[in-house]
Amino acid sequence: MSNQQSPGEAEIGAEGGRKFDMRLEVIVIPVSDVDRAKEFYQSLGWRMDVDIAKDEQFRVVHFTPPGSHCSLLFGTGVTTAVPGSVQGLHLIVSDVQVARASLVDRGINVSEVFHDAGGLFHHAGEYGRVLGPQPARKSYGSFAAFKDPDGNEWVFQEVTTRLPGRVESGPAFSSASELEGALRRAAAAHGEHEKKTGKHDENWPEWYAEFIFKEQTGV
User: Fold this and answer.
1) From the DSSP assignment, how many helices (H) and strands (E) are in the chain?
2) Residue 62 burial class via C-beta count within 10 angstroms: exposed 0-12, middle 13-18, buried 19 and up
3) pLDDT classification of 191: cutoffs 50, 70, 90
4) CATH top-level class of 26-158
């Protein structure tokens, strides 16, 4: 490996094993009616990348959610799984309430925002669901769920601060909407700060920067 090679590229480890990236980029789901599923995922506002049919026995449809590096694939002859059997596909969002509202506005049936009674990851199905966001609005703790026409389940999960080491070095935000969400949270927190001090803070850019930095790093 050259000195210019990045840590994410293939390299020879101390044990002699070859290390390389394994990026999860495609999730395959089973559907019973390809055209119906295509119409549904288009209604979510997801980008349709591919719709190719070789013949009546083989068709591939490919969608990508906004800001996602991982895509969705379904079709004919692409999986033997039972339609509707996929559960708990997670879509990470910076504000679960905004994400839910955006789909509701599109006519999609989305559950109310909820958190888990145990305070960790949510249980299967609707067991242990408590209505409302996680009380302290802790990162990873608030959810909302919806299903496609076959019953394949998707879950919004609100993540505002990543666990240490969870994400390798790179852009702090994967999309403009994520940055917008961080700025809105900073603005709301700064408003509370000004209420407490009782005066306008002319150094708000510095305050915003520190807020977002702490939120991103957990410092």
Assistant:
1) 4, 11
2) middle
3) confident
4) alpha beta
187, 75 contact by CB (below 8 A): no
DSSP state of 171: -
Confidence of residue 207 (pLDDT cuts 50, 70, 90): confident
- Apex 207 CA angle, 210 and 161, nearest 5: 40
Here the tokens at position 103 are 């789909």
Look at residue 8 and tell me whether its pLDDT is greater than 70: no
Strand partners, 90: 155
Residue 210 makes CB contacts below 8 A (sequence gap 6+) with: none
Q: Which two tokens stand for residue 71?
A: 């895509």
Length of the chain: 219
Return the closest-CA partner of residue 146 out of 46, 21, 69, 1: 46
- Domain range annotation of the chain: 26-158, 176-217
Say how far apart CA 130 and CA 115 lie, in whole Å. 5
State the distance between the two ends of the chain, measured CA to CA, in whole angstroms: 34
